[in-house]
Amino acid sequence: MRVKFWGVRGSIPSPCTTGQIEEKIIRALMGAQEVDLSDREAVEQYVRSLPLHQRGTYGGNTTCVEVRTARNELIIIDAGTGLRGLGMELMNTEFARGKGEAWMIFTHTHWDHVQGFPFFTPLYIPGNTFHLYGKHSDLEERLRCQQDLRFFPAMLDERDLPTSATPYMKANLEFIVPMPDPLELFAGRMTITTLDLDHPGVSYALRFEEDGKVFIFASDAEYKELTRAAYLQKYLDFYAGADVLVFDAQYTLQETLYEKFNWGHSSAMIGVELASEAGVKTLVLFHHEPAYDDNKIREVIYGNSLRYLRHVPTAHKCEVIVAYEGLELTI
Ligand SMILES: [Zn+2]
Ligand SMILES: [Zn+2]
Question: How far is ligand 2, taken at its centre, from the CA of residue 108, in Å?
Fold first, then answer.
């Protein structure tokens, strides 16, 4: 299966500021003393040699991840603002002609996981079909509420339209709630299981298995009893042997234990420890704190997790990467 990240930010969209962009340019220019700045090719080569957090950004859009099966069926995890970009790309495909079909799974409905939904253009094209899954049985009502005209100018469907001219989503929407667990899709080629995560209003981790490969999406989770083995075991069992684990790394360890206790998020350090113990191959740090700029994510969140990895007492140590908009993984 293939996975592509369209939104990796937590809580609220957080575009780069002018000040942050200026700082990136200043740092890049200061490192370019050996580069012939009149030679475009040399400049391009230099810019592309810079690490992502200097030449670009991890991204400010909120949660949305595209999963493609071996046969290219499309599963979308969550509908944060990153979904808008995916929709624009899909409008170059059969979705523009009303012949698209996709399966969407909602881990929960906090704003940063649903706000992209009304901006997902393929939903407005008649003929497209979307199968919408969630463990929260009132998912449809929640999305309908978000598109009440007090909050958005286009409604979820033609039910309760105040006038015949009111815009609404014309695709076929099929809600399957609460989603079965396990959920077998595509004649059993893809199996998805879930785990309750400790998060206000409850979020769910998703474990995708296809052709013996395992991808786990486990954002929006707090781990409150780190010293109690019985508490941690259900996570270790669920994450066991994953090829890729997407993990809530919003806070520093200090924040998750003290300042932001009970806000429902975790830290990269906890991810490094759980992933290493569970035999996870690759840990993806995800749901970045909107108050943190690219340098802080690189130096503090990622940097500390690498330093901590050296002290994890397990024989197996996971690889750690940072999620960014556009990141693609083949699993
Ligand atoms: Zn979130
Ligand atoms: Zn949340």
Answer: 7
